[in-house]
Amino acid sequence: MARHVLRVNGKDHEVDAEPGDSLLSLLRDDLGLTGSKFGCGEGFCGACTVLIDGQLTRSCVTRVGAVAGKAIATVESLAAGDRLHPVQQAFLDAEAFQCGYCTSGMVMATVALLKNTPNPTEQDIARVMDRNVCRCGTYPRIVDAIKRAAQQMRTTTTAVGGQR
Amino acid sequence: MSKIPSAPPVLPSTSSIEPERYELSEPLRYRFELERRDFVKLFGGGLLVLVAAPAALAQESGRGRGGQNQQPAELAAWLQIDGNGHVTGSTGKVEIGQNARTALAQQIADELRVPLASVSLVMGDTDRTPYDMGTFGSRTTPTMAPVMAKAAATAREMLIDQAGARWQADRASLAARDGRVFGPGGKSIAYGEITKGQALTGTIVADPPQQKRTDWQIRGTAAKKLDGRAFVTGAHEFPSDIKRPGMMYGHVIRPDGYGATLVTLDSAGATKIPGVTVVHDGDFAGVVAPTERDAKRATAAVRATWNVPAGQPSSRTIFTYLKENPEGEGGRGGRPTVTGDVAAARAQASRTFEASYLIPYIAHVPLEPRAAVAEWQDGKLTVWTGTQRPFGVRAELAEAFHLPEDKVRVIMPDMGSGYGGKHTGECAIEAARLAKAAGRPVKLVWTRAEEFAWAYFRPAGVIDVRSGVDAQGRIAFWEFDNWNSGTAGIQTPYEIANRRIAFHPAKTPLRQGSYRGLAATANHYAREMHMDEMARALGADAVEFRLRHLKDDRLRNVLTAVAEKAKWPKPSAAGRALGIAAGTEKGSYVATAAELSKTPSGFKVERIVIAFECGAIVNPDGLKNQVEGAVVQGLGGALFEAIEFADGRLQNGTMEQYRVPRFKDVPPIDVVLLDRRDLPSAGAGETPLVCVAPAIGSAARAFGKVEARLPVTLA
C-alpha cells in the first residue's frame, strides 16, 4: 500500500492504494465522486469515462500508479455552479437518456470528442463513442445531443474560452 | 411521513397480472443458519470472510409471497401538499429509465391543476410508499396512472370544497388552476395556504370528476425528465452510489460452475489482509473489507475448490434438451388453446407449412449491475437496492432473515435500468448477510461477470409452427407449440378458424426469468416469420396477406401506417430488401419494417420504421424515446445476442464477448406514433421491441435462406 497524489478536477488528493488499484474505485469510494459509474470493469462500456490530460480514458481499467501527476477530470468538474457545460445542456435539451446510468460517461466522451473534432460527422461520432454503451438504446438522441453541443460550442468558443 | 397504515379501506385491485411474469421472478435462495453463530471472528478488528455456494438453478417459483398486501384508499398515502404548495406523490412503482416518474407526475399535475415543476414523487420505498407488486408488465400507465389521477382529482375537489367553506361561496363559482382556488370577485387562495402542510384527510373517490383525455393540458405534452439535470451532472445517486456512515464493502465467493458444490475452502490468505472478514454460512460465502479494492483482493486470496457436475447441457444441445425435459404438470403452462378442428382443416388444406424457430437465452445487461447497501440498526434492516420489486425484495429479505416485514425497509433509488432483469433480491440478501456479519453497513455491487452468470436470462425456447392454407389463400389451420419461452404473445391476432396453441414448460439448465416483453418477442418472431413464409410461398404481398386475416382495426392501422412510411413494398435503393412484421401485446399495437442491404458477410440493417399505438399518449417524447430504445434493444436479440454456455459455465459472459448494440449498430429509426385520445392509455415500455427481429428476418430472406435459430443469420 502506498500513498498516491491524484490531481482530480483541479485539486490534489492523497490516497492510499496499491499501484494496480482501479482509478474508478478511488474516485468513487475514496473521493466520493460517484458521477463516474461502474459498468463492466473491462473498459468496454464507457460508464466510467473520465478525461486524463484531456484524453478520453476508461477509469475502471486505469491503474492509480499510472496517473500520478496527471490532470484527471470527472463529470463533476463540468458545470460552473448552476451553469451547465454545453454538452450537459445539450444532453438535457435532447433528452438523451432514459435511466441515465451511461450519461456521465457519454458526456465525458463527448467532451473529449468535441475537443479533438469540433465538427464531427456521424461516422466520427460512432467511431469515438462506440465503446460507450447505452443499454436503453438512446443512441439516436445522443448523436443529436452531440451535434447540438458541437454547434453551440462552435458559436460560443470565444465566450466559453479554450478550456472547454 | 410515517408508514402507511395497512388498515382498510383499500383500493380495488386493478392489477390482473399474468401469472407467467410473476412466476418467472425466481429468487436465488439462500438457507442461512444465522442462529448457529458460525461466523468466525478472525481478527480483533472485525475481519470476516464468508464462503457461499448458492443454489445454481433457482427453480422455485416466486409465487404466493406478499399476497396480503393491498393498496390503501387514504388520500394521504398517495398525495401530500406542503405549506408552499409543493405536491409530493407517492407510489410503489419505480423509475428504471422508462420515465414513469415524469409520466405519473404529469397525471398529478394535470388533475390537481398545478405546474409540473410543483410535483415530485417518492417511489419504491417500502416504508414511505403504498404497497405495489412491482414495476413490470407495462402496468404503470394502465394501473398506476389512474390511481395518481384519481388521487389528484380527489384532492383538487377537496381543496375547492375547503376554499368554498372558507369563503362561504357557492361551489359552482370556484375553480382551481395554477395551484390556487379562484373564487368570486377575483379572490384566490394557494393550495399551501389551505392545507398549511397538513395531511389531506379522506379517501380517494371512486369516480371524481376528471379531465376528458381530449382536454388534457399537461398529459399529452412532451414534458422533460423531471430530474434530468441530476443525471447530466452526475449528481443523481443510483443504488450503487449510496454511501452510509461506517460502510464497508462486500464481495461474494462464487462457485466456478452451475450446480457446483464446495469441496474445500482456505481463507488464510484473505484473512491476512487487514480489516477483512470472511463469512461462511450454509450455502453462502463472502468477504467484507474496508475498501472495495481490499474486498476484491480478499476474494482473490480465498482458495476454493468446487465440484461442478458433468454432463450439463450446452448452448448447442439446449434446444433438444428443452423438448426432452418437460417441467411437468402444474407448471407455468396451462392447457392448450384449441379452436375449430385442426385435423379436418389439415386434411383439406391445399398447401401446408412447417417450421421450427429456435430462441437462445439472452441477457438483460443492465448497465448498472445489481447493487445493494444493507444496514442493520436496532433490529431493523434497511436496504438500498436496484430492483423492480421493492416490496417483493422486502418479502425475500424477511424470509431469509426470519423477520416480520415491518422490520425490513427496502429503498429503491432510481436505478441503472432493468428490462425485466431485476425482479429478484439476491444482491440485497447477500449484502444484508454480510452486513449482519460485519456489524456495519455493507455495500455490495456485483461485477459484470457476476451479473452475467448469477442473475437470470430471457428463457431459451423452441417454437414449432405448422399451418396450412386453403385454395383461396386463407390460412386454414394454425398449430403453435412453444417449449419454455413462455406464453406472452403466444396467441395469434389473425383470424384463423382452426387452431391449436400450446405452451410446454421445460426444465431449464440456466436460471431464467422475466425480460422486456417476455416471451412476446420469441412468439412474435416465430409467428411473423411464419406468416412471411406463407405469404412468400403464395406469392402474396406480406402486408396484404396479413390484412386479409385481420379484423382488429388497431392492428390494421399500425400495419398500414408502417407500410406507408416505409414505402412498402419497394426498398429505397436497388439491391436492398424490406421486411415487415406486426403484433399486439399488453394492450398496445406495433408494426415494424426493416430495410437491409447485402454485405459480403451477410446483411446490414439500413433503416427501421416502426408504427406504434398505445391509446392516448401521455408524453409523446417520452414515448418516442421508449420506442426508439426498444428498437435498439430488439436489434441486439435480432442481430447478435445469444448466451453461449457449456459444462456449467458461460462462454461469453463479459461485456467484450457478449455484444450489445452500440452506436455503429444503430440505423436511422423512423417512429410513427398513433395518438388515440379516444382510448385509455396502455403501457409502452415493452411491446415496441417484439417485431424488430421478424422484420429483419423476413427482409433477410430476400438474400437467402434464414437459419432457424436467432439471431437472424443467413444459411
In words, what does this structure look like?
Chain A is of the alpha+beta class. Helices cover 36% and strands 15% of the residues of chain A. Chain A has helices spanning 23-30, 86-93, 103-116, 122-129, 139-155, 157-160, and strands at 2-8, 11-17, 49-52, 55-58, 71-73. Helices cover 26% and strands 22% of the residues of chain B. Chain B is built from 18 helices and 27 strands. In chain B, helix 3 (100-112) runs parallel beside helix 4 (140-167) and helix 11 (390-400) packs across helix 12. In chain B, strand 16 (380-385), helix 11 (390-400) and strand 17 form a beta-alpha-beta unit. With 715 residues, chain B is an alpha+beta fold. The radius of gyration of chain B is 27 Å and the shape is globular. The interface between A and B is large, with 60 and 57 residues.
Q: Main traits of this protein?
A:
heterodimer; A: 164 residues; Ubiquitin-like (UB roll); DNA polymerase, domain 1; 2 domains; 6 helices; 36% helix; 15% strand; B: alpha+beta; Aldehyde Oxidoreductase, domain 4; globular
**What does the overall shape of chain B look like?**
globular
Uncertain stretches of 5 or more adjacent residues of chain B: 1-7, 15-23, 35-67
Q: In total, how many beta strands of chain A?
A: 5
Q: State which percent range the strand residues of chain B make up.
A: 15-25%
Separation, N- and C-terminal Cα atoms of chain A: 36 Å
Quaternary organisation: heterodimer
Question: What name is given to the CATH topology of the domain at 461-700 in chain B?
Answer: Aldehyde Oxidoreductase, domain 4
Largest sheet, spatial ordering of strands of chain B: 1-10-11-8-18-15-16-17
CATH homology superfamily name of the largest domain in chain A: Beta-grasp domain
The largest β sheet of chain A comes out as: 5 strands, mixed
Q: Please, how many helices of chain B?
A: 18
Question: What is the total tally of β strands of chain B?
Answer: 27
**Biggest sheet of chain B, open or closed, and with what strands and sense?**
8 strands, mixed
